[in-house]
From TrEMBL:
Segments passing through the bilayer: none
CDD domains to which the protein is assigned, alphabetical: ABC_FeS_Assembly
SUPFAM superfamilies per the UniProt record, alphabetical: P-loop containing nucleoside triphosphate hydrolases
Domain ABC transporter stretches: 2-246
Lineage: Bacteria, Pseudomonadati, Bacteroidota, Flavobacteriia, Flavobacteriales
Protein's recorded name: Fe-S cluster assembly ATPase SufC
ATP-binding keyword on record: yes
C-alpha cells in the first residue's frame, strides 16, 4: 500500500526527516510513536504532500506509484486521507453538503460521474448509522462551534465517506479527551479492511488501547530507530524513550 524509502525532508534547510524507511501493507495498522519534535507530524505532512517541506532524497509510493509530483489534492484523490486536513469553519455549509462536494470532486478527479443523489443519501445514511452520528449533526455548519469531540466525529465521518486507501491519523500534542479517543478508535476499527491501511501517529500510548496496531515504530530525531509489535507501545509507556536512546549508542 505505502512504501517509503530513504525519505529525507527539510524545512528552511533544516533537515527534519533523515532517512525514513517504512512499508505498510493493505490490511495493516501501523503506529508511529516518538518524543515531541521527533518529526512525526512532518512525516504525515510529507506523505500527504504538504509543500512547506522539501523532500531532498528518497521516495513515497502509494500502490507502486511515486507521489513526488502530486499535489496534496491529487494525493487525496488517490486515496490518502490525513486527519486534521479540513479543520476550517465554513458557516452556511453543512457537514452533509461539504461531504457531497468532496465526494464528487474525488470522483471527477478519477474520471467518474457525480454520484446520483439517491446513492449519496444512501451512503450518508449508512455511514452515519455505522458511526452513530445523528441527523441534526449532519445539517450543522461545518466545524462552526464544534466541540473537540464533534470535530473528531466530523473527521471520522469524512474518512468513512471517502473510504481512503491510507488513513493517517495524527494525534496532535494537545491530545484528545477520552470521548474523542473513543470516537476516533471506534471509527477506525469499523472502517478497517483488507483493502485499506491505517497509520496512527501518537505521542502517547493510550490511543493504542483502542486501535490495536500490528506494528509500532519509534521515530527519534527524524529516523525510525526501533520497530516491533503492539507490546512495544506498552514498553514505551512504561519506560519512556530514554532507554532506546541508550540502546542506540
Ligand atoms: P512531532 O510531531 O514529532 O512533535 P514535528 O514534525 O512537529 O514533530 O517537528 C519536528 C521538527 O521540525 C521540530 O524541531 C520542529 O520545530 C520542526 N518544524 C516542524 N514544522 C516546522 C515549520 N513549519 N517550520 C520550522 N520548523 C518546523
Ligand atoms: Mg510536536
Ligand atoms: Mg506532531
Amino acid at each position: 500500500m505505502l512504501s517509503i524509502k530513504n525519505l529525507h525532508a527539510s524545512i528552511e534547510d533544516k533537515e527534519i526527516l533523515k532517512g525514513i524507511n517504512l512499508e505498510i501493507k493493505a490490511g495493516e495498522v501501523h503506529a508511529i510513536m516518538g518524543p515531541n519534535g521527533s518529526g512525526k507530524s512532518t512525516l504525515s505532512a510529507v506523505i500527504a504532500g504538504n509543500e512547506t517541506f522539501d523532500v531532498t532524497e528518497g521516495s513515497v509510493e502509494l500502490l507502486g506509484e511515486d507521489l513526488a509530483d502530486l499535489a496534496p489534492e491529487e494525493r487525496a484523490h488517490k486515496g490518502i486521507f490525513l486527519s486534521f486536513q479540513y479543520p476550517v469553519e465554513i458557516p452556511g455549509v453543512s457537514v452533509t453538503n461539504f461531504m457531497k462536494t468532496a465526494i464528487n470532486e474525488t470522483r471527477k478527479a478519477n474520471g467518474k460521474e457525480e454520484m446520483p443523489a439517491n446513492e449519496m443519501l444512501k451512503l450518508i445514511r449508512e455511514k452515519s448509522e455505522l458511526l452513530e452520528i445523528d441527523r441534526k449533526f449532519l445539517s450543522r455548519s461545518l466545524n462552526e462551534g464544534f466541540s473537540g469531540g464533534e470535530k473528531k466525529r466530523n473527521e471520522i465521518f469524512q474518512m468513512a465517506m471517502l473510504e481512503p486507501k491510507l488513513a493517517i491519523l495524527d494525534e496532535t500534542d494537545s491530545g484528545l479527551d477520552i470521548d474523542a479517543l473513543r470516537i476516533v478508535a471506534n471509527g477506525v476499527n469499523k472502517l478497517k479492511s483488507q483493502d485499506n491501511a491505517v497509520l496512527v501517529i501518537t505521542h502517547y500510548q493510550r490511543l493504542l488501547d483502542y486501535i490495536i496496531p500490528d506494528f509500532v515504530h519509534v521515530l527519534m530525531d527524524g529516523k525510525i530507530v526501533k520497530s516491533g509489535g503492539k507490546e512495544l507501545a506498552y514498553e514505551l509507556e512504561e519506560k519512556g524513550y530514554d532507554w532506546i536512546k541508550s540502546e542506540l549508542v
